[in-house]
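User: Modeling request: complex.
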Amino acid sequence: MDKINGSQAIIRCLQEEGVKIIFGFPGGAIIDLFDALMDSDITNVLVRHEQGAVHAADGLARVTGEVGVALLTSGPGATNGVTAIATAYCDSIPMVILTGQVPTPLIGNDAFQEVDIVGITRPCTKHNYLVKDAKDLVPTLREAFHIARTGRPGPVLVDLPKDVVAKMIDFPEKKPIRMQTYQPNYEPHQGQIEKACKKILKAKNPVLYVGGGVILSNAHEELTELARKLNIPVTMTLMGLGGFPGTDPLSMGMLGMHGSYAANMAVANCDLLIAVGARFDDRVTGRLDAFAPHATIIHIDIDPTSISKNVKVDIPIVADCKHALTAMNTWFNTSSDFNREQVAASHEPWRATIDGWATKHPMTYIDEGEIIKPQFVIQKLDELTHGDAIITTEVGQNQMWAAQFYKFNKPRQWATSGGLGTMGYGLPAAIGAKMAFPDKTVVDVAGDGSIQMNIQELATAKQYKCPVKVVILNNNYLGMVRQWQELFYNKRYAGTVMDVTPDFVMLAQAYGAVGLRATKTSEVEAVLKEALATDNTVIMDFVIAREECVFPMVPAGKATTEMLLV
Amino acid sequence: MKHTISVLLQNKPGVLSRVTGLFSGRGFNIESLSVAETLDSSISCLTLVTRGDEAIIEQITKQLHKLIDVIKVTDIGDSEYVEREMVLIRVKAEAQTRAEVLRVVDIFRGKVVDVSPKSYAVEVTGSTSKVQAIIDILKPLGIQEIVRTGTIAMARASKK
Ligand SMILES: Cc1ncc(C[n+]2csc(CCOP(=O)(O)OP(=O)(O)O)c2C)c(N)n1
Ligand SMILES: [Mg+2]
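Assistant: Request completed. Predicted assembly structure:
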């Protein structure tokens, strides 16, 4: 066997795993890996801040389904990545983060740029490692990828002391990974599937409640088949958008705090709730005892801890969503108890009720003439990109308007920080997505506040000829917080008014990007068109109705039927 | 409800902090915890005593199982089991109380493991309630220091 050094072995592992692009930022403890990367065919994207590296790898992972990889140095490099690691953890995104570490003899001595990153990231990674022996490098890396992408996916961090990656080692042959302590269960229990299917046949008012698990397990086709076969209305969580076609007549749109009236009413009144890859987050359920109070609950999830965590489940199915939905579809296809026409017809009255709710309170906003409404900007964006762009977002009102008004028909065209709600996610994530799919239109829907959290990544976008488009819905406020203050804090706008905001058009130009601005509704379309036609990174500054609120809104801790409406 | 949970885990650095971090991070409580190697030195056995309603205990066992380094989680209370705890107590023992201390230790089948002119150190093993009982009885005589091991437990073998 040929001897290579540890860094070269790591790069070879990345190649084995199919990694084409990684995002990183160098430093003393990780120079060896950067050096080894130079001799490989892997594109090494130099970001401008480590948080950006990890978000970019996360964006790539979300749109491709592959494991995103980031490379950071020790100490401040690693800690700068923590917010983004936690972001990926909360949304179950498969990632491997490699961090440099001080040489093993110095660990524990408060050496220069030493930090216990394994300790720091323990609660926000799926698993993490400190590799102390060079012969463990390759097996650890392989295990890290395996853990990141299987079961409920998540970020795995591998901490690499500088002396360990410098050692000469043999490169061991790849063997199938079998871990005694980690064997996620993919196959559903057939008895539970049958129980669930029989329950579904008895339901009069069923609802499919679809979460990010459907995207992560690539189960959108199976889900769509099930919903259409049985004529069951579908609602999605923020993470589930695209898991079912948003323009399908069965789609009720998003549910929860800023979900549609119809979706929230349907869940409140359903007699059967089929949760697929969703985790009953408080932003979805509102007041727990009022959530789906009349429903039998079926819950499919690969993570047993998600089941009966917040809401007591009647029929749990611990399995990969795709496998479980396939089993259900097969059951219906082969069961003599199932008469498709009859079942479909039996749900028509329920669908008519839901359509009634949707007509009574559609997802809408009040037109104010030339004052730009953010919802209108998103609608136009949807129209001009034929609902086919990859959309990333920042956090706040901008994110909710994007979720409400862009019609996602496909999985993996939507990357947003759901669980953690990390401002600053969208721009680096857009870069990651665009690097993965250079031919696709990638748009970051941003707020004027959030965009400033990782604006430096414009330079990365420029350096790698990565023409992402940024739509800033500029209200000159930390708008979502201001909305809460308007509604629940007597309009006391403490800490939400940004008196100084950069001129985003000039800022774009300073980075060599294009800056465009619209201040009137009549200018919106032209600006969007020009931006989409430009082969350069573009920032669009849409000066919107300053105090527009996101509606519907279920105030925190209220029942989901207690919606504030437009 | 009190539960005794037995966890088999890989004997690697940092594994214990994954377990304790899980409890503190999720607000579960630990009443006692004890851990040591098993026959197989690559595997440790951890016994912990916690409290919670059924839903919480279910979450605790599932969350423990989810940790990558955990091999097996058993809620020992689900079956018949024996539990033991050891305590070392340093109790004041001067002329007028020396005999009384020895009598109590004898009743609890304890042992005196260290003697000084003014105190005894005694060792007692038993269920948590027995350990608590001797502490309560010796307290009025003047306990200077106690160290408890925390509970360890083992399911009883099937009688069939
Ligand atoms: C890193 C981080 N800090 C703070 C928050 C709390 N927060 C949520 S939304 C929001 C306002 C965001 O403002 P902006 O980006 O302008 O978006 P808008 O709501 O105005 O569309 C804040 C501060 C957060 N989500 N993330
Ligand atoms: Mg704003």
